[in-house]
Amino acid sequence: MADDFFFPGLRNPGNTNNPAASLVTAANVEMFPGVNTLGVSIARIDYAPGGLNPPHTHPRATEIIFVLEGTLEVGFITTDNKLFVKTITKGNVFVFPRGLVHFQQNRGYGPAAVVAAFNSQLQGTQVIAMALFGAKPPVSTDILAKAFMTGNSAVDAIKAKFAPK
């Protein structure tokens, strides 16, 4: 069916009225069956001023973004904890290697948007803070307190922000 190879969902900006002030609209195999077995997918990411696509990783794909509008600070962290960071603007391209923790934040005064392409039909996304503080069942508070060199009450306060509403 021809509609399996068509996805209209990226043409309009996403609603950034949320705590991160950003929205990822994915066009991967889950909603776009035509990419099944092709090893590609795409997404649109919209950011309000200050909006953040928080630190996350894609275990199955490299990501490359093309800036449609706005000014973004983007970066990734290598496996030896070296930060690569850059400010990019309309027309610029930046790549995030497979599996590395990375982020994007709108540093401009107006909205920003990118198109992100992946070399996987289903890149997988693991948001670091959600994985650690919103896991079900939860990661033990004492483990996180020791990992972050803080007290249990600080960890419990963060966990409360990730609890289901």
From TrEMBL:
What does the UniProt entry say about where the protein is found? Secreted, Extracellular space, Apoplast
Task: List UniProt keywords, sorted A-Z.
Answer: Apoplast, Disulfide bond, Manganese, Metal-binding, Secreted, Signal
Q: Do you know which CDD domains this protein is assigned to?
A: cupin_OxOx
- Residues annotated as binding Mn(2+) are 56, 58, 63, 102
Q: What does the entry list as the binding residues for oxalate?
A: 53, 58, 63
GO cellular component labels: apoplast; plasmodesma
List residues of the Cupin type-1 domain: 8-156
**Which InterPro entries does the record cross-reference, listed alphabetically?**
Cupin_1, Germin, Germin_Mn-BS, RmlC-like_jellyroll, RmlC_Cupin_sf
Which Gene Ontology MF annotations are present? manganese ion binding
Q: What does the record list as GO biological process? A: plasmodesmata-mediated intercellular transport; regulation of root development
Primary role: May play a role in plant defense. Probably has no oxalate oxidase activity even if the active site is conserved.
Q: Which family does it belong to?
A: Belongs to the germin family.
Under the subunit heading, UniProt states: Oligomer (believed to be a pentamer but probably hexamer).
Q: What is this protein called?
A: Germin-like protein
